[in-house]
Amino acid sequence: MKLSIRDYQGVSFSFDVLALYCNRLLIQFGFGVVGIFEVIFLFNQFDSNIPLVALIYASIFLLSVILTPFGAMLISLFGMKRLMILSIPFAFCSILSLFLWDLNPLLALFGLIFSTVIYKTLYWVPYHVDFAKFSDKKTRGRQLSILLAVSEIVTIITPLIGGAIITASGYSNLFIVSLGILLFAVIPLFFIQEKYETFSYSYWETYTELFSKKNRSLLLGYTGDGAQSGVTLLVWPIFIFMLLRGEYLVVGAISSITILALLVLRFVVGDLVDRWSRKKVLTIGTLLNTTGWLVKVFIETGFQIFIIDTYHGLGKVVNQMSVDVTTYNQATDNGHYIDEFTVLKEMAVNAGKTLILLVVGVVIFFYSLKVAFVIAAVASLFVTLLNKEMMVGEKKLIVPEGVRQ
Q1: Helices marked H in 101-170 — which ranges?
Q2: Which residues form a coiled coil (predicted)?
């Protein structure tokens, strides 16, 4: 199929989408310069103890699973806009904890875990619900292509910037740069509309819905997506850092070049998501993503990192784009239950990250770090379950294709 600029001429954005995504980009830039180097920082601080680092991140995601329903309950009291605004100081404090690490490592670790969990609890459900409400379903794939292309530009430059700063002046200055950017992230949120939702589940009812048979596709699909994200978060940065013998600038440069090679694919995939069936795109993406994980087992050099990660990136682009569009479509299709769907999805994703990190933390005692790539490949297969229509609330949990609430 031939891709044309004309395919994107009918795509427009509401002011709320632009303001919301501007906030997202600032947060992404602030966290992005630290990015993969945060895991490496903790890896070095704990004397290359991968199981301990895995346990730290697993605790963050487990606490997120526990607290996410409480965060959703606050939406009816404060509104989504105010909750996101309240989350930004905690994002700031998570990086501040790293900056102050040498003063008291134990206290800084507690601050990192606490601040990150509260930020995630207050921010992500309102963000996803707002984006689902503000974006246009008919062109959502192409909207996401354009926005994610801009996001990719940030993603391209931040590893290189981070690696350069660490090489030139160390981690402290890196954290200062990150903190400076995060200070401005709250500003765009003041310009979006305030939205309220009433979370319909009680705390324990949320878990009943999450683990119910009728929501099994949602649970397994997003748990699989979270599991492979957990490997990307923890194992991949440590793996390439060890392979490249601690060269921070090279780690950042290879990461940036790989992402640059994938930038144009955002537009191609976004057009396919809008034109092809969700099932077709998600299935192709999962196939590419799964084989990409398996091929990573054979990486031995820096050049192979670039070639194989670019191939895997192709699968991740197709997979993540289709998952994102599927998620926002599923959310809006749930009407009044849009926040309930989003909460269940976020809990499943964080549960997947928790499980994979605990498994990796144990398996690493007996096998090579590369075994995590095989586990991620298996987990990625579960993402195809998101092809199934999912409706939450009042016995409308599974609806045939084409039927809308």
Answers
A1: 105-134, 140-169
A2: none
